[in-house]
């Protein structure tokens, strides 16, 4: 009540208003500077312990930032139906900005310390139930409250978690009897006259949270305002300790009322507290099964993520779905991520956040690696369709089935000539035993037209008989006689050669006209053939 001057305290004849120059004290139209809501009724003690005739009070709060002159303001009380009205006009009082002003029915000669003004018997005894209190300036209603019942010895208080407001105090749910734990202000009487009100411990105000001890509206994310961006459903370690998920908020919001769950009908609030839990615009919030789940855990994850089969994670408010992600199965220790382009992929192996666990909880997710579809390869990191050879584009031009400079396991090889620019990806070499060599790889293995590609059992020139520049592995073993070698792709035969015998240390070659003969030029360690080069003419 600092800064409040009470005419009733300064004049012993406050009740009679005689000889104190009342008209001189009250400025004409002083309260007309007030607007509805400038004063808020915040506390009523209508049912004091003992006789109601003494100890009653009404608390008013100056909701503005400036001092208010209350001269001429009228306090009124009546039954809820308007019957039995009584009123009193305040004289010679003011209240500081954001200050409390307490008026009561105490005798003028013995006003207690918690009162700033006495209206004497002008309002009679305040009703214990079914009552209306109002504050007016002339015909203008500044504030009004109704109450249905009171508790003996305990004041009715506007919930101290709320910022005093003339609309909030219209709701009976925002009021409570002074709770347990509050000190007496007089024997047998509990309340907070002239001070911040007690928080109501039983009634939770829907749509509000506490910030700095006062209530404010919860900032709820709207559709598109939150995205589930990462989740670890199958961690290395106990799921009950190390599961987590990450959500991104595009604007300032509160986690109060925010829900997560595995299905729209199984959403659970992520926090259970009255204090506001704000998150900033662009924040990534990590919800963990325990504080050890990630390097930073912001709030508790209150449901278990599934490891196998089709699964979903839902984010919502009041049962309304704001975002949903679906996944099918997991890899132990690897989180699922949503990248900036809304692609979903597993975390990268370089992003280890705990031993054996990979992901980026609380940090921006990297872009997902490009995904190869069927029949595609990476061309300098960009997926494209594989250019496969067709009929007449590839010819088996030479083969060494029986090397002598080195053993068969090290020295066998097959050469294929390509007459078109193609990719080697997916090419298959096979023999009569159904053994196969398949050219595999995610990168496009592009070759130019006229290239001679060597498939060898061993790529090391020091071990394979001196063949330099081996292009691909030959995993099948060639027979020395009665053998067929077939080149194909996707089940389509591109070329096939059959031979009845082979000479030791001599490759068999096919010249440009299709004639077959023994090789006549030496390579490497002394065997005959031209691996990787054009074949000479057969004579």
Provide a compact summary of the structure.
This protein is an all-beta fold. The chain has four helices and 46 strands.
- Report strand order across the widest sheet: 8-7-2-1-11-12
Tell me roughly what share of residues is in helical segments: under 10%
Q: The CATH topology of the largest domain, please?
A: Immunoglobulin-like
Instruction: Using the coordinates above, name the CATH class of the largest domain.
Output: Mainly Beta
Return the average pLDDT rounded to an integer: 90
| Uncertain spans | 1-28
CATH second-level architecture of the largest domain: Sandwich
Number of strands: 46
In total, the number of domains comes to 3
Biggest beta sheet attributes: 6 strands, mixed
Overall SS class: mainly beta
Euclidean distance between termini CA atoms: 120 Å
CATH H level of the largest domain: which superfamily? Lamin Tail domain
The geometry reads as rod-shaped
Strand content: 35-45%
Separate helix tally: 4
